[in-house]
Every structure is written in structure tokens, then in C-alpha cells.
Amino acid sequence: MNRFLRSASGAIYLLFCSIMLWGFCPSATAQSDLNGYWDLRIPNPSGDGTFRDTYFQLQQDGTAIHGQLIRGQQQIPIAGTLENGSIHFATQPPASTNGREQRPVVFEGSYANGKLTLSIQRRDGTVQGLAEKVTEEATQPPKPLPLPALKDVPDNGLARTPPMGWNSWNKFAGKVDDASVRTMADAIVSSGMNKVGYVYINIDDTWELGRDAAGNILPNKKFPDMKALADYVHSKGLKLGIYSSPGPQTCAGYPGSFAHVQQDAATYAGWGIDYLKYDLCSDRDVYKDDAPTLQAIYQEMGDALRATHRPIIYSLCEYGSARVWEGWGEKSGGNLWRTTGDIEDKWESMDKIGFSQIKLASYVKPGHWNDPDMLEIGNGGMTADEYRTHMSLWSLLAAPLIAGNDLRTMTDETKSILMNTDVIAIDQDPQFQPVAEVSSDAGIEVLMRPLHDGSVVVGIFNRSDDAAAGKFSRSSLPASFSGKKLRVHDLWKHADVAMDGDAFTATVPKHGVVMLRISVR
Ligand code: GLA
User: Fold this and answer.
1) How far apart are CA 205 and CA 184, in angstroms?
2) In the prediction, which pLDDT does 423 show?
């Protein structure tokens, strides 16, 4: 029985017991047995009218409690106590999810007269809900549906250079709504970001409500009219992106596109959507995680988008599963695909993700890009030098430049980083050639990438925890530079600099970068 039917039948049962047959229904004490399967329904914090279900199974042994948290096919052991009506239990955490370490989930609350009330900690604070007993079946993911035979989805002709824009997740997570998207569209124009290439305004997870009787996906209270929002964004010369999952649920527990793939693609096209981020999430509870299965799953949506005849950028979010860059991402119709777990607004996260990408740089080509996740520039967790490294590295990698900060309150420094047109020009070079490592020594990484006009860009990065001397030797340049007079332009100082004799040397700040464009004079 699905959860809506469950809630409705529970309500009818209670009404029946209270007005008709008081004393005939099972007593509170008979129901007070904790043993069994439970669904904890917690309202989502944004007040969008949606709930998140958490399933678990409990077994009581005196005051001791044990059991398991059920997440799709994953079962995570639970242990705790029930004493004088106070209940407390916690999970043994799995090692990681999407590349992030997980902390134990702690449940705390009360159990009296068969009523189980629990609170848990979420990213946005403590949240509370009522748990209700369910069948074991209700805790399980749906059975897999047949997948299409593999084929190559034809290139949609989009994203000839890496996509640029803004996405709601890094800064707003569940707080994104119609008003914030509109004001972000206003800000991308008033700041001038649209003029330097940032045109996609992408709504990430938490916009969904459920489905109508015909199975059409509906936006929740935060998005009263998706078509009107798309019209507004388009009226500014911008494009609108949306988010879903091939699984039954998105990563934040909202409805995904499982069993509704073609219908959802048609809905998005009808609203005027221009970009879809399709995030694996609970799909992993239903299907295997190998390359042919993932290709079929992503191909189904790739094909469905194509069938709408609307140009929609297709962004695969699968955390680098099954070496997506080796071919199945492109075959499934993807314009970009995630190569890593989620980025965080911390040096360690950005550094680890960014520098792990160099070896993958040659797997991409126009229309089909590696995506090391969205930008954190301006979110406050890193220094300006670290954010310059973020922007420089993503541009050298030809990564999508999807800002993830609040564009309405940017400092001048943040603007100067996100809108450095010399650096953006590296990212958007019209004849993509991959970056390569020149040297790596004691935290100094030197990278070089050839550009369409015969010049090269060189990044001298300092990953160490102190300022350090960086050096780039003339002998590392391609043969065509040999014996020629050179122009060396510093892309962050916005000035020409000198190459002394056979090498360029500079002090590079801790976690900072010197980025040079070198051309023959
Ligand atoms: C995953 C993705 C993130 C974001 C969230 C939303 O973790 O990798 O980029 O979309 O889901 O729930």
C-alpha cells in the first residue's frame, strides 16, 4: 500500500474506533509493542507542504532497542534504549554516501500509548515527526522496470563550450523558491554575469510535490507556477534549469522520475525548461550500478528529452560511477557528467576534487564535459586565494562554471573572481584541447593547456600550507615557442609580466595560483 493510501486508511480506522466502537478496537497497551516496521514522516523544513519518510525496523528487549534503518536496499544497524517513555537510538554509520562521510543518525523522542514521536538532526536543524507502523513491503523500493536496449543517443548539438550559469543547491539547498530564483535571475543581469556567459538559472532539488491522478509531476508550494517562472527567466534573456532523479526519490527525498521518464521530459519541455540535472540517488536502490545499467537509465531520459524537440542541456549526476567519462555518459546523450562526489565549501574538498581531475581531462570534447561539481566561490568557507584557485583550476579543466553563491549579495572580490573574463576565456576556449601536468613538486603543481590562437595558459598552483616559490621553465613550452620573443600576461594581475631568461618565477601564496597566458609576440 503506498504511503498516501496508508495515511488515509489510518485516519478512517481512527475515526471508526472513536465514534462507533469505543472499547472494541485494540487497546493502547496492545499497540504499545515497538516491534515492527515504522515510517517516520517529518515535514520538510522549508514548509513546502511535503514530508520526508524515514523507514526503520525496531525490536525491543526490556529497555534495550535494536533494529535497522532501512534506506532502499541498505540496512544500517540501530541500537538504543527505551526507559520511562523516553526513547533514544542511533545508527552505525555507513562509510560514506556520494563521497561524503556520514555521521550517525540519532533519533530521540517518546513512546507512550503506542504513539512514537521522534526528532532527528538535519542540515537545517532539529526536526520532529510522528512515526506510524507500516508493513515490511512499504519500506522497500519498487521493483525494477524493464530498461531500453542500448543505443547511442544522437548529439543534441548543445554545450559546444562548458555550460555557465547558477544553481541553487550549494547555498540554498531546501530553501530555494520562486522568489529566490526570480531575484537570482535579476542579480545575474544586474551584476553583468550574463554578459560574460552565465545564462543558466538552475533549480536543484526540493521543488517537487507529487503527482496528479494522471501521473503528471507537480511543483510544491514554493513554486506556484513553473511556466510563469520560466517565462520570467526567459524574459531576461536567460535559461531555466530543473532537477530530477531516475529513482523513485531524489537525494533530498522528493519524488523522482521513476516510471514517469517520458512524461516528466514532456512536462519540463511544456514549462519551457532548458537544462535538466538528473541525479542518480535512490535509483541505486532499484537497479545495479554498472556501466550498461547506468547507460540504459540515463539513455531513457536522454531519449525522452530528445523526443520533446526542445533544446535541453542534459547534465548527468552520478558521482563518477562506472567511469562515466569512458563513453557511456556521451552515448546516453549527456552534455556533462559528474566525475566526483559532492563538493563542499572547504579547501580540502575543492583541492581534492580539482586536482584529481587532471588525469581525466582528455576524455572530454565539445558537447560532452567532465563536471567536477558546482562552484563554491563566494560562499565564505575559503579564502580569496583559494577561490581564485577554484576558478583557475575549473577553467583549465574546461569544467562547467555553475556558480553556487548568493548572487544578490556578492562582494566586489567575489565578482572579480567569477567575472574574470581572461580566465573565463580559458574555460570557454572555442577549440578545446586538454590540460596536462608540467610538473608536481612539494605542493607546487604546474599545469599547461594549449589554446585556439596558438598561445598557452599556464597555472602555477601552490597546494602547500605556506607561500612558496613557483617556477615555469621556458623549455616546457611547445616547440613552436622556441627562440621567439614572448608575451606573458598574468590573468589575475591583469598585467604583462617578465620571463627572466629561461624561466618565470614568482612567490605563490598558500593555496593560491599564478595564471599566465603566454603567446609569441
Ligand atoms: C546530490 C547531488 C547534489 C545535489 C543534491 C540534492 O547530493 O550530488 O549536487 O543536487 O543531491 O539533493
Assistant:
1) 16
2) 99
